[in-house]
Amino acid sequence: MSATTQSGFLNGNAARIVAAVLAVLIAIVWFYNYQADFSRVMSGDAATELPQASTQAAADANPALAACLKKRVGDVDQMKADGILSEAKYASFRSRAEELCAQQNPS
User: Model pTM?
Assistant: First the structure.
């Protein structure tokens, strides 16, 4: 196959059709793979369904982490009890508090 034959194919309509079909197939696979995420975002629920690492096991081994979690998560729980935080915001604030304590007190 010579260079002119190859570049002729790449500049032709057949290559454009192949590229369009591939793009549509990739879009279909991508959509079906993330369909639950699209539905959740479109409904306005931004909460994630990703698995969360348990901080309880780490807190048992690290007293400073346990103290931090008790204070920070306790503050977030109090804000929820006072009606300051909605359910969606509560989950976000709680996960941020846990992440902050985990960063400040590594195991």
Answer: 0.46
